[in-house]
Structures are given as structure tokens and as C-alpha cells.
Amino acid sequence: MRVATARVEDAEALTDLHLDVWDEAYGSLVDPAILRERRERRTERVASWRTIIGAGSSANLLAWDGDRLVGFSSTGNGRDPGEGLPPLELMAL
User: Fold this and answer.
1) How confident is the model at residue 57 (pLDDT cuts 50, 70, 90)?
2) Which is the most buried residue in 18, 31, 37, 64, by most CB within 10 A?
């Protein structure tokens, strides 16, 4: 297992994993049309990940098993700043 910082060229693998984990986690909880629509917008999602990674607005770590992406995390500035709350937020795992 290798953990590395996401690169712009990882956007397609990250998009595919993100879509897969949504299907697995939410498949029995949401309307199947929502998951289909997410997959239909794959090209937009790849572009979005490229932008996010390229901008450096969040820290994105990827877990690789050989050449297969098996996990990721995204952290960034907290979206709900408040007294006693940490300035960092785990946005995806």
C-alpha cells in the first residue's frame, strides 16, 4: 500500500473511485436515478477533480494498492468556523 498526494493526472482514477464508493455507500438509500445521473456526468466530475487538485484548495491523499486506487481523503479549511471548532475539516474519506 502506498499513500501519495493527489496529482492532476490522478483525477480520472479518483473520479471513478468516488463514483464507486457513492454507489456502494448510498445505493440502498437514495433514488437510483441520482447515482445514474452522477455517472452520466463523469466528464464534468473529472474536470472538477482536476480543478480542485490543481488549485490546491484542499489536501487530497490517495491510497494505492499497486496501480489500483483503493482509497482517498480530502481535507481543507473548515466550512463552519466557530469558537472551539478546529480550522480543518475532513471533507471526504
Assistant:
1) confident
2) 18
**pTM (predicted TM-score):** 0.86
Query: What's the per-residue H, E or C state across the chain?
Result: CEEEECCHHHHHHHHHHHHHHHHHHHCCCCCHHHHHHHHHCHHHHHHHHHHHHHHCCEEEEEEEECCEEEEEEEEEECCCCCCCCCCEEEEEC
Cα distances from 35 to residues 2, 16, 51, in angstroms, run 29, 13, 22
CATH assignment of the domain containing 15: 3.40.630.30
Give the domain range for residue 67: 2-92
Question: Residue 77: pLDDT band by 50, 70, 90 thresholds?
Answer: confident
Average pLDDT over residues 45-70: 96
